[in-house]
Write a structure and sequence with these properties.
2 domains; Isopropylmalate Dehydrogenase; alpha/beta; globular; single chain; two-stranded antiparallel ribbon; 12 strands
C-alpha cells in the first residue's frame, strides 16, 4: 500500500483525547498512513501567537487531507470561526454530514440513515456586508448565492446519491420568502435534477423539513441545502441518532479535504478519560472512504456498532462504565475479532 501522509490537528479541549484514540484505531488496522501534526486554535495561539498559523495551512495544502479535532470558537464577539476560515481558505464547498442509528445510543429513533450535504462557502456564512451601526441600533449581513456555487454543491449531492445508491434527494429551501437567494438555489436544483432521472428529487421548505425530520425521519435519504439551513438541519439530524457525539463531518473541495468531529471542544472534560471518540472515528471513516480504503472504513463502523450495542465498555454519555481508553481498547479487541473472521 502506498504511504499516505495526512495532516493531523489534535485541536482544543478533548480534541487530543479523541484524536489520539482515533490514530490508535487507524494504526491498528495498518492503514498505511503517516501523520504530520499541525496546530490550530488555542494551543496554536499559546505556542505561536496565531490561531491559524501559516505553517498549518501549508501542511494541509501539501498533504491534501487533514483529520481535525474540535477547535474553540467563542460565541458573539472574538475571533472568526476557524472552521469557517479553513473552509473558505481551501474552498471546501461540500460539508457532508451522515447520521446513522446505532443501537445502544439511547436515541429517540431507530432506522435513521440520512446524509446532509451542506453548501459550505456561500449564503449567510460568506461574511459579506456585515455591519453594525455606530449607535448599535442596526446590524446587517448579506446572503450571497451564486449559480456556480449552487451548481457545484447540487451536482456533488446528486453524484453522491448515485455513488451511495440513494434513491431520493430532498432539496431544502425557503424560496417562498427568500425569492432571490433560495429561489436561485431551487431553480438550479430543478435543472440539475433533470440530468439524474433515476433519482427522485423532492422539494421541501426548511421549516417543514424540520417538522418532518422530528415526526418521520425515515422518509429522508439525502438532503442538500444552503449553508445556514444545512448547519441547523445537520445538527437536528445528529439529535435523531443520539447527539453530536455520533456526528462526523467531511469538508470536501476540489483540491483538499478536512475530516472532523462536528461537536465542540468540551474543555470541562478534557483529559478526564470520559470523552466519546465516536464522532471523530466516524470522520476518520469518511476519510478512509475518500482515500479508497472503504473496506477498513466499513470494519471500523462495524466495530463501533458492535461495541456500542454491547454497552459495557462505552463512555458515560452512552450509558457505559468505560472511559475513552477502555472504549478504544474495546474497539481494538473487536477489530481483531472481525479480522480473524
Amino acid at each position: 500500500m502506498s504511504n499516505n501522509t495526512i495532516t493531523v490537528i489534535r485541536g482544543d479541549g478533548i480534541g487530543p483525547d479523541i484524536v489520539d484514540a482515533t490514530l490508535q484505531v487507524l494504526d491498528h488496522l495498518n492503514c498505511g498512513l503517516s501523520y504530520e501534526f499541525a496546530e490550530a486554535g488555542l494551543s496554536a495561539m499559546e505556542n505561536t501567537g496565531e490561531l491559524l498559523p501559516e505553517t498549518t495551512l501549508e501542511t494541509i495544502a501539501r498533504n491534501k487531507v487533514a483529520l481535525k479535532g474540535p477547535l474553540m470558537t467563542p460565541v458573539g464577539g472574538g475571533f472568526k470561526s476557524l472552521n469557517v476560515s479553513l473552509r473558505q481558505h481551501f474552498q471546501l464547498y461540500a460539508n457532508v454530514r451522515p447520521v446513522l442509528s446505532i443501537p445502544g445510543t439511547r436515541a429517540r429513533f431507530e432506522d435513521v440513515d440520512i446524509i446532509t450535504v451542506r453548501e459550505n462557502t456561500e449564503g449567510m456564512y460568506s461574511g459579506a456586508g456585515q455591519r453594525v451601526s455606530d449607535d448599535e441600533r442596526v446590524a446587517e449581513a448579506m446572503s450571497v448565492i451564486t449559480r456556480e456555487g449552487a451548481s457545484r454543491i447540487l451536482n456533488y449531492a446528486f453524484e453522491l446519491a448515485r455513488k451511495e445508491g440513494r434513491k431520493k434527494v430532498t432539496v431544502v429551501h425557503k424560496a417562498n420568502i427568500l425569492k432571490s437567494t433560495s429561489g436561485l438555489f431551487l431553480k438550479v436544483a430543478r435543472e440539475i435534477a433533470e440530468t439524474y432521472p433515476e433519482i427522485e428529487m423532492q422539494e421541501m421548505i426548511v421549516d417543514n423539513a424540520c417538522m418532518q425530520l422530528v415526526m418521520n425521519p425515515q422518509q429522508f435519504d439525502l438532503i442538500v441545502t444552503t449553508n445556514l439551513f444545512g448547519d441547523i438541519l445537520s445538527d437536528l439530524c445528529a439529535g435523531l441518532v443520539g447527539g453530536l457525539g455520533m456526528a462526523p463531518g467531511a469538508n470536501i473541495g476540489d483540491d483538499c479535504a478536512i475530516f472532523e468531529a462536528v461537536h465542540g471542544s468540551a474543555p470541562d472534560i478534557a483529559g478526564k478519560n470520559i470523552a466519546n471518540p465516536t464522532a471523530i472515528l466516524l470522520g476518520a471513516c469518511q476519510m478512509l472512504d475518500h482515500l479508497d480504503q472503504g473496506d477498513r472504513a466499513r470494519m471500523i463502523r462495524q466495530a463501533l456498532q458492535d461495541v456500542i450495542a454491547a454497552g459495557d465498555r462505552t463512555t458515560p454519555d452512552l450509558g457505559g462504565n468505560g472511559g475513552t481508553r477502555e472504549f478504544t481498547q474495546a474497539l481494538l479487541d473487536r477489530l481483531d475479532q472481525l479480522q480473524a473472521g
